[in-house]
């Protein structure tokens, strides 16, 4: 059974940084592709980034160059380093394996 728990969200000013973490169980990090998705108020779910079992990464155009996805296979933990945050990054962020999402963490970017 896949269990995913995101944490690290909060209120940050534009231009600030946050690091999200996702503790996972029931996932084989060395082979599974893991992703971060987000859902802004009143909008649909958006794929932010993913990382393959081998460590290849992809980013949405809206976050490329500002966000970095990484993982620690030994700790079964997924990370998302978010720099130069913008108000449009405000959303609930979830880690996901395929279509399975865990509990999200709210990121609010506002002055």
* Topology, number of strands: 11
Low-confidence stretches: none
Strand content: over 45%
Helicity range: under 10%
Order of helices and strands: EEEEEEEEEEE
How many strands, which pairing sense, and closed or not: the largest β-sheet? 7 strands, mixed
Description:
The chain is an all-beta fold and 111 residues long. Helix content is 0%, strand content 52%. The protein is built from no helices and eleven strands. The chain has strands at 3-7, 10-12, 18-25, 34-39, 45-51, 57-59, 67-72, 77-82, 91-97, 100-101, 105-109. The strands form two sheets. Strands 2, 4, 5, 6, 9, 10 and 11 form a seven-stranded mixed β-sheet that branches. A four-stranded antiparallel β-sheet has the order 1-3-8-7, with no helix packed on it. It is globular, with a radius of gyration of 13 Å. The N and C termini lie far apart (40 Å). The mean pLDDT is 96.
Which descriptors apply to this entry?
7-stranded mixed β-sheet, mainly beta, single chain, 111 residues, globular
Question: Would you spell out the secondary-structure blueprint of this structure?
Answer:
Elements: E1 3-7, E2 10-12, E3 18-25, E4 34-39, E5 45-51, E6 57-59, E7 67-72, E8 77-82, E9 91-97, E10 100-101, E11 105-109
Parallel strand pairs: 2-11
Antiparallel strand pairs: 1-3, 3-8, 4-5, 4-9, 5-6, 7-8, 9-10, 9-11
């Amino acid at each position: 059974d896949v269990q995913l728990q995101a944490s690290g969200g909060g209120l940050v000013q534009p231009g600030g940084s946050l690091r999200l973490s996702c503790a996972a169980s029931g996932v084989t990090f060395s082979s599974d592709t893991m992703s971060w998705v987000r859902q802004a108020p009143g909008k649909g779910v958006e794929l932010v980034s993913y990382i393959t079992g081998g460590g290849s990464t992809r980013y949405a155009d809206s976050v490329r160059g500002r966000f970095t996805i990484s993982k620690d296979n030994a700790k079964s933990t997924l990370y998302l380093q978010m720099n130069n945050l913008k108000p449009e990054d405000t959303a609930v962020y979830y880690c996901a394996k395929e279509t399975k999402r865990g509990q999200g963490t709210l990121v609010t970017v506002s002055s």
